[in-house]
Structure formats: C-alpha cells, structure tokens
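Why does residue order matter? Because the sequence determines the fold. Keep that principle in mind as you read this record.
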Amino acid sequence: MEHIQNFLFIPALSLLPCVIWLVYFYIQSRYKTPPLRLIFLTFLLGALSTIPALALNLMGQKLFLAFAGNTAISRVLMLFIVVGPVEEAIKMLMVWIYAYRQPEFDEPLDGVIYSAAAALGFAAVENIVYLSENNPLLVFLRGPLSNPGHALFSAVWGLALCRAKLVPNMASQRVPIIVQGWLIASLLHAIFDALLVGATRFIILFAVLVGIMVALFFWVRSKLKFHAETSPHREGTLLMPTRRYCQECGARGKAGMPCPRCGAIIPDPDELQLCPVCTEAQRPGAKFCMRCGANIRLPARENLDLRPHFVTITNDGDERIAFILNREEIFVGRTLNNAFVIEHPSVSKRHARIAASVGDSYTLQDLESSNGTYVNGKRIGETRLEDGFEVRFGRANFVYRAQRANFANGATA
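Structure:
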C-alpha cells in the first residue's frame, strides 16, 4: 500500500512546483492567450527530452572523465563541458522543432513562455527521479530553486531564437545569435550546478547561489515586462500621419489636415517622396534632401548578394542586407510568424505579401495594412518589383535589389 502511495504521491509532488511556475510564465502574456494545446505539447516534449539528455550526459561524462581523470576538479569542469551544454541544447531543440515553427509563436514573449514550458517539463521528470531516490520533502528546495532555474536558463536561448528572427535571414547572422544564447544558458546552468554541489560543503556558496538566482529571476522578469508592453498584440498598428508641405503656402503639416499657417487642407499625396537615407518628407520636385543633403535618387550600388533582396541604406549611404527573397511566398509584418519580420510600430502584424512571378521577378501585394505599402513613394495595392525600387512598409524603408545572372545558391537560415 505504501509503495502505491509513493507511486502516486511523488509524481504529483514533482509536477506541482513545475505547474505553478508554468502558470506564472503563462499569465505574463496579457494581450493574447497562448494555446494550451501548444503549451502542453511543448511541456511534454521537454519531459521526453530527458531521455536523449540522459543518454548524451552519461556518454559525455564517461568520455570526459576517461580523458581528464576522475578528480574533484574534472567533475566540476564536466558540468561546464557536458551537463550544461547538453541539457540546454536538448531543451532548445525541442522548442525549435515544434513550438518555434507554429504560427502562434509570433512575438518575443513567446520565446520565454515556450522555452519555460519545455524546461519545466524537463524539470518535472528530474524531480520524479530525484525525489524517488531521496527525501520527497526536498521538493521544497527544488521547487524554489532548481525548477525555476531550468526555466530561467532556457529563457536566455528562448529570447535568442526570437532575436534571430529579427535579423536578415542569413545563417551568418542568425546562427551566432542562437549559439550565443545557448552558450550563456549553458554557462548559467553549469554555474548553478557547481554552486549547488559546493553548497553541501560551504554554506556561503548556497547564499551566492540564491543571490544569482534572484538576480536572474528579476532580469527575466524585466524582459517579460518589456516584451509584454511592446507586444504587437497590445493594440492596433500605430497610425503614423503623413507629413507633407502645403501646396498653397509651403508650410509643413499633416496630409488630410488644415495647414497650420494658412488653413488650407493639405491633400493626401499621390506621390509621396521621402529621403531614402533619413526618410524626411521632401518638397515637390526636390532633388536633394533638405535635412541630410542626400541625393533623393541614390544611384544603384553593387549588389551585396546575388539573390533578390531588400537592403537598408545607412546615414553614410552604405547598403546593408535586410532580407533575402529565398522562397516562393514571403509574408512581411511585425509578428515573428512572418518570414520578413520588421520590428517597427508603423508596420502591421501581417503587412504585405511578396510572391514569385514570371521569370525571376517578384510581386509585392499590400494586405490592407494600417499605414500602407509604398513603392517609389506611391501607395500600392499590388505591383511588380524591379531593381532599385524604393519600398516602404509603413515607415520602414528599403530598396529592392533584383537577382543577377550566374547565381550560386548560398546558405540561409
């Protein structure tokens, strides 16, 4: 009878702190409701990830100790070389292969929530194994420390996965961000384990451990607060009034509103001309920007990539790749479930669509965005892109560079 009670009691006791922490992370999403199905499946994948993690840990520890020798120092180093990196990599892989690819994963806050779900699933299984071999009352130590520790470590690479979506879709730019997040999470994980081992002999190390965990908790909490407040689901797209010069007196005002100087209604522009360098609105017929002096029609520069792509132009006139057109259909918008993510308040959640058309050309279509899609200063519904076209999504400016001949496929992420 006692054996049956332990069989039921220990799993329930092991799950309880993990579920409590998962609820804490779940309720941080204020402006949308993450689907419970996706949360549960990510939690389950995290739990299942303990199987390959255990196998890799045992194999890695055996190889490392055979090479470095079974000493106190080597056992501590093993936490940094094997245990931390393996467990964080497996948890990250579980999120990457499932939750990260779902359309519901569409904002940075999701990076923390789903990484926490996978990490707490992993921690729940660890609890069951640990408590079944030790005093079940140790859950009161693991609940406030080890369980949230897994979630807090994983939040680092969860946020890194989201940041990678915000840079150009090139492996050379996305992979380093993800690897850095994984390495930092692995380091924090290993430090935690090392301090926990040392705390059995030196109580001061336990105090240091608690201090680090409290600091990490408040850091993650600040990220949760920031991404909740800046969530693309918080409100509608920020409407940006079009600035234009009055055709009667030349004063600057807002399109569709009375002129601040003479009172005449400033009409909406048929052809809005913006400086491609600083985005300042220009007087009709201007050749040079009144703000930065740049040529309004900058000459085409050498392509930075042989594939069709969008570039941004810096204040120095240099071009930087913003996105490579590497698929048949590309959605542009503010949320992370778009292929081309533009983190700007004037960009709608699902702003525009780019589709391959005849030959090597692409067609750009506005998806009834709040602030419109403009090509060469003119608001469009749908148009064919050509080399050198200036494209503006809301107030985010880019230049389209077409494909060249003799292109050899490069790696993208």
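Residues 270-404 form a domain with the Tumour Suppressor Smad4 fold (CATH 2.60.200.20).
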